[in-house]
Design a protein that fits this description.
Elements (H helix, E strand, L loop, with lengths): L2 E6 L2 E6 L12 H11 L2 E5 L8 H4 L9 E8 L10 H13 L4 E5 L14 E4 L6 H9 L3 E4 L5 E6 L2 E2 L3 E3 L3 E9 L5 E8 L2 E10 L1 E9 L4 E10 L4 E4 L2 E4 L4 E11 L4 E10 L5 E9 L2 E9 L4 E8 L5 E9 L2 E10 L6 E5 L10 H7 L3 E5 L11 E5 L14 H12 L3 E5 L8 H10 L2 E6 L2 E6 L9 E3 L5 H12 L5
Parallel strand pairs: 3-4, 4-5, 10-17, 25-26, 25-27, 27-28, 28-31
Antiparallel strand pairs: 1-2, 2-3, 6-7, 7-16, 8-9, 8-11, 11-14, 12-13, 12-15, 15-16, 15-17, 18-19, 19-22, 20-21, 20-23, 23-24, 29-30
Helix pairs in contact: 6-7
């Protein structure tokens, strides 16, 4: 299987099986997409991290989506094999939410002569035969999974269809997970969806089998499996998509508040995956109010739809997008009072106390936001709340990555305020200590089975970081309310 790598500044892409190639010096990313479509060539997004580029944050191209069918969640030729990274998985989820249909891969990207043997990272391909045509067909159909263990076997199906498949018009899906590795036992298994983590399991065995049934929330959803072995190796399956056969979808749904207008804004990309022109009626609904718009889309056209609502309630608001009266996309947005501070709560590191914020937002005027995809940029909120990790969950997700520490340090030095809440995992606080060390504020330690902060009273930024100890959830809630009302020093 031959190919070439296009290495533009916005990202790197592998293109397979063509008899010619296109130069990065003579083409933009859009030019490359058009070239791939014209050649009907299989392609893969490579190592999607900030260092190498994330393809304009995976801006969606409906035509290219038919042929760019793979995306790395792991990359590296180092011997220890720790190649699947949180940043790549986070960007993989971003790509899926943008609308891309991508099978998960993990490769060595080896520039030395020990390709294939440098480590145990593999892309597993579920092909009918060991032939060129069968393997390429499996790659085009996204029948793959990424693994850091070459002996680990993963099978994931939805209603009997193999991972990578698209199911149409299903309202309920039976997901079947089978994992086997006689050399290394499995520890944790998650089912991840566009709506979040829908199931978590403790495996603690060299084989794991689970059958679950999920109710599909709307006309566009995907599900994939993330498994971790006891030695730390990770496996990521390709997703199973569940879509409305109308083939007109609402991707990149964003809901935000406009304090100056006292309004809630809703925007999304309306995409026609049909080859023919369509005329559709679109309804954007926020709780019990809605707005209708008639839209005409050419084949494979993508168009941005934007509207604004002046009627809404504080707290949870359900946003739904209907196309020709069919529910295509939905989300729940926490609308805070359009007055008061902006509060960003981290929920991307298996954090403790993820279920208490709606109550707090209803009691204190503030704009509540959630950090779901790591601190990729310097926060702009007035207050950042860092609940330390909970005892359960994936250990790899509990640690702050170096770029996150850097962004949080910049945030504090620019005048931002961080509130640290102790959790019940006492083994994963080192990266938070790294953050405190950069700010000269002391360290977190365990005393009497509780996490406490030993302040450096001379620290320059001691006014910008608050540690909030508590006795129980009720006292924590009261302390948070006092802090947000400005009643705590």
């Amino acid at each position: 299987l031959w190919g070439f790598e296009w290495t533009g500044g916005v990202g790197h892409i592998n293109v397979y099986g063509t008899n010619d190639w296109i130069s990065r010096n003579e083409s933009s990313l859009q030019d490359l997409y058009e070239w791939i479509v014209s050649h009907k060539a299989l392609a893969q997004f490579n190592h999607p991290i900030s260092k190498f580029g994330t393809f304009y944050d995976f801006e969606y191209d409906p035509r290219a989506d038919e042929f760019i069918n793979l995306c790395e969640v792991g990359n590296g030729n180092w011997a220890i094999g720790d190649t699947i990274s949180d940043e790549m998985i986070s960007n993989y989820i971003l790509a899926l939410n943008r609308g891309w249909h991508l099978g998960a891969t993990a490769n060595q990207d080896n520039h030395a002569a020990n390709w294939g043997s440098a480590n145990d990272t593999r892309t597993a391909i579920l092909a009918e035969k060991l032939t060129y045509d069968s393997i390429v067909a499996a790659l085009m159909d996204r029948h793959t999974y990424a693994t850091e263990d070459r002996d680990a076997l993963l099978n994931f199906t939805g209603n009997g269809q193999l991972m990578g498949s698209v199911l149409y018009d299903a309202t309920r899906v039976e997901l079947l997970i089978n994992l086997t590795d006689l050399q290394d036992p499995f520890q944790d298994v998650q089912v991840v969806s566009q709506s979040g983590v829908v199931a978590k399991f403790e495996a603690n065995s060299d084989s794991f089998s689970k059958r679950i049934t999920v109710t599909v929330p709307d006309g566009y959803e995907w599900y994939y499996v993330l498994a971790r072995q006891r030695d730390g190796d990770i496996l990521v399956s390709s997703p199973i998509w569940v879509q409305d056969s109308l083939a007109v979808y609402a991707h990149s749904l964003k809901v935000s508040e406009n304090p100056s207008e006292k309004a809630v804004n809703v925007s999304f990309h309306l995409v026609n995956l049909n080859s023919e022109k369509v005329k559709v009626n679109v309804r954007i609904q926020l709780e019990t109010t809605w707005k209708d718009v008639a839209v005409e889309l050419l084949g494979y056209e993508k168009r941005t739809i934007f509207t604004s609502f002046k009627e809404f309630k504080s707290g949870e608001n359900h946003v739904k997008i209907f196309v020709n009266e069919r529910l295509i996309q939905s989300t729940v947005h926490q609308v805070s009072y359009l007055e008061g501070p902006t509060v960003l709560v981290d929920v991307s590191h298996e954090n403790s106390f993820q279920d208490m914020w709606t109550t707090i937002a209803n009691d204190v005027p503030m704009k509540l936001q959630f950090n779901k995809k790591f601190f990729k940029t310097v926060p702009t909120a007035d207050i950042v709340i860092l609940p330390l990790p909970a005892e359960k969950g994936f250990n790899e997700l509990k640690e702050l990555m170096p770029f996150e520490i850097s962004n949080l340090v910049s945030y504090v030095k620019n005048g931002g305020k961080i509130v640290i809440i102790p959790g019940d995992d006492k083994d994963h606080i080192q990266t938070y200590n790294d953050l405190l060390d950069h700010l000269g504020l002391g360290e977190l330690v365990v005393e009497n089975d509780k996490i406490v902060l030993r302040y450096d009273k001379d620290g320059e930024y001691k006014e910008n970081v608050v540690f909030l100890p508590f006795q129980d959830v009720a006292s924590l809630t009261e302390s948070l309310l006092e802090l947000l009302r400005g009643e705590l020093p």
